[in-house]
Amino acid sequence: MKKNKIKPSIKKISFYEFLIILIAVGLLSFVTYRQFIFARDKSRDLQRRSDLHEFSKVILNYFNDYSKLPETKLINSLWGKEFIDGNYTYAKSIPKEKYGKKEYCYDISTDGLSFKMFADFDNKKDKDCKKDGNVCQGVKYCYTDIIYVNKTTEE
Questions:
Q1: Average pLDDT of 87-105?
Q2: Which residue(s) pair with 88 in the sheet?
Q3: What is the pLDDT of residues 31-70, one digit of tens each?
Q4: 77-93 as b/e, with b when 16 or more CB fall inside 10 Å?
Q5: How many domains does the chain have?
Q6: Phi/psi at 72 (5° precision)
Q7: Looking at the DSSP assignment, which residues form a beta bridge with residue 147?
Q8: Residue scoring higher pLDDT (82 or 133)
């Protein structure tokens, strides 16, 4: 008895079908890549906000101890370093810009009752990123956080 062997039929795709598949995969890859970049930028910007927010608490602790804000020159020289005053450590490591070219910046208002923390965002379309920007130490930044201190006088 003779066995019938069934050969599987493999359909070959044409050049045009292959081209359509290639274009579809390319478009999906492009869209996915753009979304990944957008998510990465948002994540980095969120980290920048968090860094500045956490460091503003350190500045406020200093203000509570001395009833004045630390000097601009001092803080701007400490990014990524330890902030020690006398025997007291205010911060083991002041946050440092990890991704961008511009370091964070700190500035005191002329009345000494507020200070600003500056950062540059990757996502320039963020609602808090101002296109005209703000200037700190001669450098333009798109994000500024202004923190007011409560100066109480003891008599």
A1: 91
A2: 85
A3: 999 999 999 999 999 999 999 999 999 999 999 999 999 9
A4: ebbeeebeeeeeebbee
A5: 1
A6: -60, -45
A7: 115
A8: 82
Q: What 3-state class would DSSP assign to 38?
A: helix
> Domain for residue 67, yes or no?
yes
Q: Is residue 76 part of a domain?
A: yes
Residue 80's domain spans which residues? 15-148
Residue 89 backbone phi and psi in degrees, to 5: -95, 115
Total-model pTM: 0.77
Run of H or E residues at 66: helix 15-66
Q: Output phi, psi for 21, to 5 deg.
A: -65, -45
Residue 9 included in any domain? no
Indicate whether 71 belongs to any domain.
yes
Answer whether residue 3 shows pLDDT above 70. Answer: no
Structure tokens at 37: 């970049």
Span of 13-17, 54-58, 72-76, 102-106 with lowest mean pLDDT:
13-17
